[in-house]
Amino acid sequence: MKKKNVLNLIKYYAEKNDAGFRDQAYEIARYFDGIGNYQLAEYIMALMSNTNTFVPQISDSNSSFFRKVEYGTDSLPLPEVIKDDVIGIVNAIGHNAGINKFLFEGAPGTGKTETAKQIARILERDLFIVDFDSIIDSKLGQTSKNIASLFEEIRNFSHPEKLIILFDEIDAIAIDRINSNDLREMGRATSSVLKGMDSLNENIVLIATTNLFDAFDKALTRRFDSVIDFNRYKREDLIEIGEAILNELLSKFKFAGRNMRLFKKIISLMETIPYPGELKNLLKTVIAFSNPSNEYDYLKRLYNSVNKKNLEMDLKELQNEGFTTREIEILTGISKSQVSRELKE
Protein backbone atom coordinates (compact mmCIF):
# COMPACT_ATOMS: atom_id res chain seq x y z
CA MET A 1 0.00 0.00 0.00
CA LYS A 2 1.31 3.43 -0.94
CA LYS A 3 1.13 6.63 1.10
CA LYS A 4 -0.98 8.22 -1.63
CA ASN A 5 -3.78 5.70 -0.93
CA VAL A 6 -4.06 6.90 2.67
CA LEU A 7 -3.76 10.56 1.64
CA ASN A 8 -6.40 10.12 -1.04
CA LEU A 9 -8.66 8.35 1.45
CA ILE A 10 -8.48 11.34 3.80
CA LYS A 11 -8.80 13.82 0.94
CA TYR A 12 -11.90 12.17 -0.51
CA TYR A 13 -13.49 11.95 2.93
CA ALA A 14 -12.90 15.65 3.53
CA GLU A 15 -14.31 16.50 0.10
CA LYS A 16 -17.32 14.21 0.67
CA ASN A 17 -16.39 12.44 -2.55
CA ASP A 18 -17.99 9.10 -1.72
CA ALA A 19 -17.07 7.36 -4.97
CA GLY A 20 -13.41 8.30 -4.60
CA PHE A 21 -13.42 7.38 -0.91
CA ARG A 22 -14.87 3.93 -1.64
CA ASP A 23 -12.50 3.30 -4.53
CA GLN A 24 -9.52 4.01 -2.28
CA ALA A 25 -10.94 1.89 0.54
CA TYR A 26 -11.50 -1.03 -1.85
CA GLU A 27 -8.00 -0.59 -3.26
CA ILE A 28 -6.56 -0.77 0.27
CA ALA A 29 -8.65 -3.88 0.94
CA ARG A 30 -7.29 -5.44 -2.26
CA TYR A 31 -3.75 -4.67 -1.11
CA PHE A 32 -4.20 -6.50 2.20
CA ASP A 33 -5.91 -9.36 0.39
CA GLY A 34 -2.92 -9.54 -1.97
CA ILE A 35 -0.40 -9.89 0.83
CA GLY A 36 -2.40 -12.61 2.53
CA ASN A 37 -4.06 -10.55 5.26
CA TYR A 38 -7.52 -11.81 4.32
CA GLN A 39 -9.15 -11.01 7.66
CA LEU A 40 -8.24 -7.33 7.47
CA ALA A 41 -9.33 -7.17 3.82
CA GLU A 42 -12.69 -8.71 4.64
CA TYR A 43 -13.05 -6.42 7.68
CA ILE A 44 -12.60 -3.33 5.46
CA MET A 45 -15.07 -4.71 2.92
CA ALA A 46 -17.57 -5.40 5.69
CA LEU A 47 -17.21 -1.87 7.03
CA MET A 48 -17.81 -0.42 3.59
CA SER A 49 -20.83 -2.61 2.98
CA ASN A 50 -22.43 -1.46 6.24
CA THR A 51 -21.64 2.22 5.90
CA ASN A 52 -23.51 4.81 3.87
CA THR A 53 -21.08 7.69 4.17
CA PHE A 54 -22.54 10.20 1.74
CA VAL A 55 -25.31 8.29 -0.11
CA PRO A 56 -23.75 8.77 -3.54
CA GLN A 57 -25.48 9.11 -6.88
CA ILE A 58 -24.32 6.80 -9.62
CA SER A 59 -23.01 8.54 -12.69
CA ASP A 60 -20.80 7.55 -15.55
CA SER A 61 -18.05 9.76 -14.11
CA ASN A 62 -17.81 8.50 -10.53
CA SER A 63 -18.31 4.74 -10.81
CA SER A 64 -15.83 2.19 -12.00
CA PHE A 65 -18.52 -0.47 -12.43
CA PHE A 66 -21.06 1.33 -14.60
CA ARG A 67 -21.32 3.42 -17.71
CA LYS A 68 -24.35 5.38 -18.75
CA VAL A 69 -26.05 4.29 -21.96
CA GLU A 70 -27.58 6.85 -24.27
CA TYR A 71 -30.68 5.64 -26.07
CA GLY A 72 -31.73 7.04 -29.43
CA THR A 73 -35.12 7.62 -30.99
CA ASP A 74 -34.98 4.84 -33.60
CA SER A 75 -37.95 2.49 -33.57
CA LEU A 76 -37.53 -1.10 -32.48
CA PRO A 77 -39.58 -3.51 -34.61
CA LEU A 78 -40.51 -6.62 -32.65
CA PRO A 79 -42.95 -9.50 -33.18
CA GLU A 80 -46.31 -8.87 -31.53
CA VAL A 81 -45.78 -11.66 -29.01
CA ILE A 82 -42.55 -10.07 -27.73
CA LYS A 83 -43.98 -6.56 -28.00
CA ASP A 84 -46.85 -7.60 -25.71
CA ASP A 85 -44.33 -8.82 -23.12
CA VAL A 86 -42.44 -5.51 -23.30
CA ILE A 87 -45.67 -3.58 -22.75
CA GLY A 88 -46.32 -5.87 -19.78
CA ILE A 89 -42.91 -5.02 -18.33
CA VAL A 90 -43.59 -1.29 -18.68
CA ASN A 91 -46.97 -1.73 -16.97
CA ALA A 92 -45.51 -3.86 -14.16
CA ILE A 93 -42.86 -1.25 -13.39
CA GLY A 94 -45.48 1.49 -13.50
CA HIS A 95 -47.64 -0.33 -10.94
CA ASN A 96 -44.78 -0.18 -8.37
CA ALA A 97 -45.69 -3.67 -7.20
CA GLY A 98 -42.12 -4.85 -6.65
CA ILE A 99 -41.90 -6.58 -10.06
CA ASN A 100 -38.51 -5.20 -11.04
CA LYS A 101 -36.13 -7.95 -12.19
CA PHE A 102 -36.31 -9.20 -15.77
CA LEU A 103 -34.20 -11.65 -17.78
CA PHE A 104 -34.09 -11.39 -21.58
CA GLU A 105 -32.87 -14.61 -23.17
CA GLY A 106 -32.31 -15.34 -26.83
CA ALA A 107 -29.83 -15.59 -29.68
CA PRO A 108 -27.55 -12.66 -30.59
CA GLY A 109 -29.27 -10.01 -32.66
CA THR A 110 -32.80 -10.65 -31.39
CA GLY A 111 -33.10 -7.17 -29.86
CA LYS A 112 -32.54 -7.85 -26.15
CA THR A 113 -30.22 -4.92 -25.44
CA GLU A 114 -32.12 -2.52 -27.69
CA THR A 115 -35.35 -3.46 -25.90
CA ALA A 116 -33.78 -2.49 -22.56
CA LYS A 117 -32.91 0.91 -24.08
CA GLN A 118 -36.46 1.36 -25.33
CA ILE A 119 -37.91 0.53 -21.91
CA ALA A 120 -35.61 3.11 -20.31
CA ARG A 121 -36.70 5.68 -22.89
CA ILE A 122 -40.41 4.98 -22.39
CA LEU A 123 -40.11 5.16 -18.60
CA GLU A 124 -37.76 8.19 -18.78
CA ARG A 125 -35.20 6.47 -16.59
CA ASP A 126 -31.41 6.60 -16.72
CA LEU A 127 -29.91 3.40 -18.08
CA PHE A 128 -26.58 2.18 -16.72
CA ILE A 129 -24.81 -0.88 -18.11
CA VAL A 130 -22.55 -2.95 -15.88
CA ASP A 131 -18.93 -3.01 -17.06
CA PHE A 132 -17.89 -6.62 -16.57
CA ASP A 133 -14.29 -5.81 -17.54
CA SER A 134 -13.95 -3.85 -14.30
CA ILE A 135 -15.59 -6.63 -12.24
CA ILE A 136 -14.02 -9.84 -13.51
CA ASP A 137 -10.61 -10.35 -11.97
CA SER A 138 -8.15 -13.20 -12.47
CA LYS A 139 -7.21 -13.04 -8.83
CA LEU A 140 -8.95 -15.72 -6.75
CA GLY A 141 -11.97 -14.36 -4.91
CA GLN A 142 -11.66 -10.80 -6.22
CA THR A 143 -14.51 -11.08 -8.72
CA SER A 144 -17.03 -11.93 -6.02
CA LYS A 145 -15.77 -9.02 -3.91
CA ASN A 146 -16.20 -6.68 -6.87
CA ILE A 147 -19.74 -7.97 -7.38
CA ALA A 148 -20.49 -7.21 -3.73
CA SER A 149 -19.14 -3.68 -4.24
CA LEU A 150 -21.23 -3.33 -7.39
CA PHE A 151 -24.47 -4.10 -5.58
CA GLU A 152 -23.41 -1.84 -2.73
CA GLU A 153 -23.21 1.04 -5.19
CA ILE A 154 -26.64 0.12 -6.54
CA ARG A 155 -28.12 0.06 -3.02
CA ASN A 156 -26.68 3.51 -2.30
CA PHE A 157 -28.26 5.17 -5.29
CA SER A 158 -30.29 8.09 -3.92
CA HIS A 159 -33.03 8.08 -6.59
CA PRO A 160 -33.76 4.40 -7.35
CA GLU A 161 -37.03 5.26 -9.07
CA LYS A 162 -35.00 6.92 -11.85
CA LEU A 163 -32.67 4.01 -12.54
CA ILE A 164 -32.45 0.91 -14.73
CA ILE A 165 -29.41 -1.33 -14.37
CA LEU A 166 -28.52 -3.50 -17.36
CA PHE A 167 -26.46 -6.67 -16.89
CA ASP A 168 -25.78 -7.26 -20.58
CA GLU A 169 -24.71 -10.89 -21.12
CA ILE A 170 -24.86 -11.64 -17.41
CA ASP A 171 -23.67 -15.18 -18.15
CA ALA A 172 -20.16 -13.69 -17.96
CA ILE A 173 -20.51 -13.93 -14.17
CA ALA A 174 -23.37 -16.39 -13.70
CA ILE A 175 -22.79 -19.57 -15.69
CA ASP A 176 -24.20 -22.74 -14.12
CA ARG A 177 -22.10 -23.43 -11.02
CA ILE A 178 -22.59 -27.19 -11.27
CA ASN A 179 -21.22 -27.42 -14.82
CA SER A 180 -18.55 -24.75 -14.43
CA ASN A 181 -14.93 -25.77 -14.99
CA ASP A 182 -13.96 -23.65 -12.00
CA LEU A 183 -16.67 -24.59 -9.53
CA ARG A 184 -15.22 -22.75 -6.57
CA GLU A 185 -14.58 -19.40 -8.25
CA MET A 186 -17.81 -19.40 -10.26
CA GLY A 187 -19.67 -20.43 -7.14
CA ARG A 188 -18.34 -17.38 -5.30
CA ALA A 189 -19.25 -15.04 -8.14
CA THR A 190 -22.74 -16.44 -8.69
CA SER A 191 -23.45 -16.53 -4.95
CA SER A 192 -22.49 -12.85 -4.76
CA VAL A 193 -24.94 -12.07 -7.57
CA LEU A 194 -27.68 -14.04 -5.80
CA LYS A 195 -27.05 -12.20 -2.55
CA GLY A 196 -26.98 -8.84 -4.33
CA MET A 197 -30.26 -9.48 -6.11
CA ASP A 198 -31.94 -10.57 -2.89
CA SER A 199 -31.13 -7.22 -1.30
CA LEU A 200 -32.03 -5.10 -4.33
CA ASN A 201 -34.25 -2.09 -3.77
CA GLU A 202 -37.57 -2.92 -5.45
CA ASN A 203 -37.69 0.59 -6.96
CA ILE A 204 -34.58 -0.16 -9.01
CA VAL A 205 -35.29 -1.97 -12.27
CA LEU A 206 -32.74 -4.64 -13.16
CA ILE A 207 -32.65 -6.11 -16.66
CA ALA A 208 -30.24 -8.90 -17.58
CA THR A 209 -29.61 -10.48 -20.96
CA THR A 210 -28.11 -13.84 -21.89
CA ASN A 211 -27.34 -15.80 -25.06
CA LEU A 212 -26.63 -18.92 -23.01
CA PHE A 213 -29.85 -19.61 -21.17
CA ASP A 214 -29.33 -23.38 -21.20
CA ALA A 215 -26.08 -22.91 -19.27
CA PHE A 216 -27.62 -20.34 -16.94
CA ASP A 217 -27.60 -20.96 -13.19
CA LYS A 218 -31.12 -22.09 -12.25
CA ALA A 219 -30.93 -20.58 -8.79
CA LEU A 220 -30.32 -17.21 -10.42
CA THR A 221 -33.12 -17.74 -12.93
CA ARG A 222 -35.54 -18.02 -10.03
CA ARG A 223 -34.46 -14.57 -8.77
CA PHE A 224 -36.03 -12.91 -11.81
CA ASP A 225 -39.68 -11.94 -11.76
CA SER A 226 -40.05 -12.71 -15.46
CA VAL A 227 -38.01 -14.38 -18.21
CA ILE A 228 -38.70 -13.13 -21.74
CA ASP A 229 -37.84 -15.41 -24.67
CA PHE A 230 -36.54 -13.33 -27.62
CA ASN A 231 -36.29 -16.29 -29.98
CA ARG A 232 -39.97 -16.11 -30.94
CA TYR A 233 -39.59 -14.75 -34.47
CA LYS A 234 -41.59 -16.30 -37.30
CA ARG A 235 -40.36 -16.03 -40.87
CA GLU A 236 -43.17 -13.59 -41.63
CA ASP A 237 -42.09 -11.46 -38.65
CA LEU A 238 -38.54 -11.20 -39.97
CA ILE A 239 -39.68 -10.16 -43.46
CA GLU A 240 -41.95 -7.51 -41.95
CA ILE A 241 -39.21 -6.31 -39.60
CA GLY A 242 -36.74 -6.22 -42.51
CA GLU A 243 -39.14 -3.91 -44.34
CA ALA A 244 -39.37 -1.62 -41.29
CA ILE A 245 -35.56 -1.53 -40.94
CA LEU A 246 -35.12 -0.74 -44.64
CA ASN A 247 -37.69 2.06 -44.50
CA GLU A 248 -35.81 3.63 -41.62
CA LEU A 249 -32.46 3.33 -43.42
CA LEU A 250 -33.85 4.76 -46.67
CA SER A 251 -34.93 7.88 -44.79
CA LYS A 252 -31.23 8.48 -44.07
CA PHE A 253 -29.84 7.47 -47.50
CA LYS A 254 -31.79 9.87 -49.72
CA PHE A 255 -30.26 8.64 -52.99
CA ALA A 256 -31.65 5.10 -52.61
CA GLY A 257 -34.98 4.24 -54.19
CA ARG A 258 -37.86 2.44 -52.52
CA ASN A 259 -39.13 -0.84 -53.96
CA MET A 260 -40.51 -2.92 -51.10
CA ARG A 261 -42.07 -5.55 -53.34
CA LEU A 262 -38.69 -6.40 -54.87
CA PHE A 263 -37.01 -6.21 -51.48
CA LYS A 264 -39.41 -8.73 -49.95
CA LYS A 265 -38.96 -11.09 -52.90
CA ILE A 266 -35.19 -11.03 -52.41
CA ILE A 267 -35.41 -11.55 -48.64
CA SER A 268 -37.88 -14.40 -49.15
CA LEU A 269 -35.22 -16.28 -51.12
CA MET A 270 -33.14 -16.67 -47.97
CA GLU A 271 -33.36 -20.13 -46.47
CA THR A 272 -32.81 -18.65 -43.02
CA ILE A 273 -33.60 -14.99 -42.54
CA PRO A 274 -31.22 -13.51 -39.92
CA TYR A 275 -32.43 -11.92 -36.71
CA PRO A 276 -32.93 -8.12 -36.71
CA GLY A 277 -29.43 -7.22 -35.48
CA GLU A 278 -27.66 -9.09 -38.27
CA LEU A 279 -30.32 -8.13 -40.81
CA LYS A 280 -29.88 -4.44 -40.03
CA ASN A 281 -26.10 -4.72 -40.48
CA LEU A 282 -26.61 -6.47 -43.84
CA LEU A 283 -29.00 -3.81 -45.14
CA LYS A 284 -26.89 -0.95 -43.86
CA THR A 285 -23.83 -2.40 -45.61
CA VAL A 286 -25.45 -2.97 -49.02
CA ILE A 287 -26.89 0.56 -49.02
CA ALA A 288 -23.64 2.17 -47.85
CA PHE A 289 -21.63 0.31 -50.52
CA SER A 290 -24.09 1.04 -53.33
CA ASN A 291 -23.54 3.41 -56.24
CA PRO A 292 -25.28 6.74 -55.40
CA SER A 293 -26.02 7.30 -59.12
CA ASN A 294 -28.05 4.06 -59.22
CA GLU A 295 -30.98 4.24 -56.84
CA TYR A 296 -31.54 0.47 -56.86
CA ASP A 297 -27.93 -0.68 -56.78
CA TYR A 298 -28.38 -1.73 -53.14
CA LEU A 299 -31.06 -4.25 -54.19
CA LYS A 300 -28.68 -5.84 -56.68
CA ARG A 301 -26.02 -6.02 -53.97
CA LEU A 302 -28.57 -7.50 -51.57
CA TYR A 303 -29.53 -10.17 -54.11
CA ASN A 304 -25.89 -11.09 -54.70
CA SER A 305 -25.27 -11.20 -50.96
CA VAL A 306 -28.33 -13.35 -50.30
CA ASN A 307 -27.57 -15.78 -53.12
CA LYS A 308 -23.76 -15.64 -52.87
CA LYS A 309 -23.52 -14.91 -56.58
CA ASN A 310 -21.37 -12.70 -58.74
CA LEU A 311 -22.74 -9.98 -61.02
CA GLU A 312 -23.35 -12.42 -63.88
CA MET A 313 -26.99 -13.27 -63.19
CA ASP A 314 -28.88 -15.93 -65.13
CA LEU A 315 -32.01 -14.32 -66.57
CA LYS A 316 -33.91 -17.58 -66.76
CA GLU A 317 -33.13 -18.37 -63.13
CA LEU A 318 -34.28 -14.90 -62.08
CA GLN A 319 -37.53 -15.50 -63.93
CA ASN A 320 -37.98 -18.88 -62.23
CA GLU A 321 -37.44 -17.16 -58.87
CA GLY A 322 -40.52 -15.06 -59.60
CA PHE A 323 -38.99 -11.75 -60.66
CA THR A 324 -40.76 -9.67 -63.32
CA THR A 325 -38.96 -8.27 -66.37
CA ARG A 326 -38.84 -4.85 -64.69
CA GLU A 327 -37.36 -6.36 -61.54
CA ILE A 328 -34.82 -8.29 -63.59
CA GLU A 329 -33.91 -5.01 -65.28
CA ILE A 330 -33.26 -3.44 -61.86
CA LEU A 331 -31.14 -6.37 -60.69
CA THR A 332 -29.08 -6.80 -63.85
CA GLY A 333 -29.03 -3.40 -65.51
CA ILE A 334 -30.27 -5.02 -68.73
CA SER A 335 -33.20 -3.21 -70.39
CA LYS A 336 -36.66 -4.77 -70.19
CA SER A 337 -36.84 -5.19 -73.96
CA GLN A 338 -33.54 -7.06 -74.04
CA VAL A 339 -34.56 -9.18 -71.05
CA SER A 340 -37.78 -10.13 -72.84
CA ARG A 341 -35.93 -11.03 -76.06
CA GLU A 342 -33.32 -13.16 -74.29
CA LEU A 343 -35.95 -14.97 -72.24
CA LYS A 344 -37.90 -15.81 -75.39
CA GLU A 345 -34.80 -17.13 -77.07
Automatic annotation (TrEMBL):
<keyword id="KW-0067">ATP-binding</keyword>
<dbReference type="GO" id="GO:0016887">
    <property type="term" value="F:ATP hydrolysis activity"/>
</dbReference>
<dbReference type="Pfam" id="PF00004">
    <property type="entry name" value="AAA"/>
</dbReference>
<feature type="domain" description="AAA+ ATPase">
    <location>
        <begin position="98"/>
        <end position="234"/>
    </location>
</feature>
<keyword id="KW-0547">Nucleotide-binding</keyword>
<protein>
    <submittedName>
        <fullName>AAA family ATPase</fullName>
    </submittedName>
</protein>
<dbReference type="InterPro" id="IPR003959">
    <property type="entry name" value="ATPase_AAA_core"/>
</dbReference>
<dbReference type="InterPro" id="IPR027417">
    <property type="entry name" value="P-loop_NTPase"/>
</dbReference>
<dbReference type="InterPro" id="IPR003593">
    <property type="entry name" value="AAA+_ATPase"/>
</dbReference>
<dbReference type="InterPro" id="IPR050221">
    <property type="entry name" value="26S_Proteasome_ATPase"/>
</dbReference>
<dbReference type="GO" id="GO:0005524">
    <property type="term" value="F:ATP binding"/>
</dbReference>
<comment type="similarity">
    <text>Belongs to the AAA ATPase family.</text>
</comment>
